[in-house]
Amino acid sequence: MFLSEVWILAVSITVAVQEKNPLAPCLPGPQGPPGNNGVPGHNGHNGLNGEKGLKGEPGSIGMRGPPGPPGKLGPMGPKGESGQPGPTGPQGRPGECSPRQKSAFAMKLAKNYPAPKQPIIFHQILYNDQQHFDKATGIFTCQIPGVYYFGYNVEVYRNTTIIQLMKNSQAVIGSYQTTLNSYENMSGSTVLKLEKGDKVWLEVKHESNGATHTSYFLGYLIFEI
User: Fold this and answer.
1) pLDDT of 12 over the 70 cut
2) How confident is the model at residue 3 (pLDDT cuts 50, 70, 90)?
3) What is the pLDDT of residues 37-56, one digit of tens each?
4) What is the pLDDT of residues 116-168, one digit of tens each?
5) Residue from 118, 137, 112 nearest 204 by CA
6) Sheet holding 183-194: strands in order across?
7) SS3 string of 66-122?
8) Cα separation of 173 and 79, whole Å?
9) Mean pLDDT, the chain, integer
10) Which of 52, 141, 169, 204 gives 20 to 30 Å between its CA and that of 195?
11) pLDDT at residue 21, rounded to an integer
12) CA 17, CA 58: separation in Å to the nearest integer?
């Protein structure tokens, strides 16, 4: 309030002096009080983009994120090289196998000079557990298809003797022997493939043969087919 009154008084004196002497030079008056704040101006326009700054230093490594979902199966790669053989495994348990079938016979003639051109009848059985050799007919009949061994050993005396091993009425092998006043032996053997029902026997060809009682005929199954 006091300052306002002083300011008004100074202005009045200045005006009075100017009126008495209008050409006299004006002296500056005292500094007036501060004015009130003006109304804020409008927002200015955005300035131009500044120049690109320098590249900053790399930041620290962040925490590891969670695993992503499985990707699609890729194409099969080339075959790799063979690896080294592994160690030998433990011994396995014994396997089971079906029992092997058997078929065998061994016969002795036991009488001299059998009848010719027919199966020789052997009178003494040495082995015939499977009963595949018929003692009454002198014929072996195959019951188990397979490969068989057959053999004979015939003792002859004096006469000429021809003996043959027959399969289904066909001669397979034979032996020939002529003796005078001595005993001689002739023998033969072979391997035959037989089907079930095939028949095998021995026979002599002449009535005046020299086959004696110490003659033998045998056969057995080697393996099945």
Assistant:
1) no
2) very low
3) 778 777 777 778 778 878 87
4) 999 999 999 999 999 999 999 999 999 999 999 999 999 999 888 999 999 99
5) 118
6) 124-127, 104-108, 216-224, 146-157, 183-194
7) CCCCCCCCCCCCCCCCCCCCCCCCCCCCCCCCCCCCCCEEEEECCCCCCCCCCCCCC
8) 59
9) 85
10) 204
11) 47
12) 77
Q: How far is CA 81 from CA 56, 76, 78, 84, in A?
A: 50, 15, 10, 10
In SS3 terms, the chain reads as CHHHHHHHHHHHHHHHHHHHCCCCCCCCCCCCCCCCCCCCCCCCCCCCCCCCCCCCCCCCCCCCCCCCCCCCCCCCCCCCCCCCCCCCCCCCCCCCCCCCCCCEEEEECCCCCCCCCCCCCCCEEEECCCCCEECCCCEEECCCCEEEEEEEEEEEECCEEEEEEEECCEEEEEEEEECCCCEEEEEEEEEEEECCCCEEEEEECCCCCCECCCCEEEEEEEEEC
Window from 9-13, 55-59, 102-106, 137-141 with minimum mean pLDDT? 9-13
- Contact criterion met (CB below 8 Å) for 108 and 212: no
Q: Are 122 and 135 in contact (CB under 8 A)?
A: yes
Single-letter code of the amino acid located at 85: P
* Residue tagged 């490969």 (tokens): 147
Rounded distance between C-alpha atoms, residue 189 and residue 163, angstroms? 12
Q: What is the pLDDT of residue 181?
A: 84
